[in-house]
Write a structure and sequence with these properties.
Blueprint lengths: L1 E5 L3 H12 L4 E6 L2 H10 L4 E4 L8 H11 L4 E6 L4 H10 L3 E4 L5 H12 L4 E2 L1 H14 L10
Parallel strand pairs: 1-2, 1-3, 3-4, 4-5, 5-6
Length: about 150
């Protein structure tokens, strides 16, 4: 799996580089903004972009939209401290394949998320799945009819 890491905070970026070195992935390049993430992911034929939300030049959500428009086969796994319902739902709507919270993710969970994406599935932290389920319940949708036999 070819990964581009997009993280604007140097200390976190360095830590993630070390974590990714322990996993069975190829770290193509690290960048510190969403615009570079899009450019590098497209130029280097990345499989996955591990992306923060809050970054300069172009934020992570705008970068997800751009990648989905240009090459939807590239998966984007958001890894962010941003945990508001609005931000998370915006990332999902933009086309993110997963979302993990920096405050609670472990190396094992990051590995599992990357493996899940490699298998073609989405991956969200349990806290985000619970948030999405609550959000759907409160809004009364989606409507799923009962099957009649």
């Amino acid at each position: 799996m070819r990964i581009v890491l997009a993280e604007d905070q140097a200390l976190i970026r360095e830590g993630l580089v070390r974590v990714l070195a322990e996993l069975d992935v190829v770290l193509v390049k690290t960048v510190d903004n969403g615009a570079d993430a899009v450019r590098v992911a497209l130029d280097e034929h990345a499989d996955v972009v591990l992306m923060d939300v809050d970054m300069p030049v172009m934020d992570g959500i705008a970068a997800v939209r751009e990648l989905q428009r240009e090459r939807p086969s590239i998966k984007v796994l958001m890894l962010s401290a941003a945990n508001s319902e609005t931000t998370i739902l915006s990332a999902i709507e933009a086309g993110a394949s997963g979302y993990l919270l920096k405050s609670s993710v472990t190396i094992t969970q990051l590995r599992q998320a990357l493996e899940t994406l490699a298998q073609g599935h989405a991956h969200f932290s349990p806290r985000i799945v619970s948030m999405m389920a609550k959000w759907l319940r409160e809004r009364g949708g989606p409507k799923i009819g009962r099957a009649h036999v």
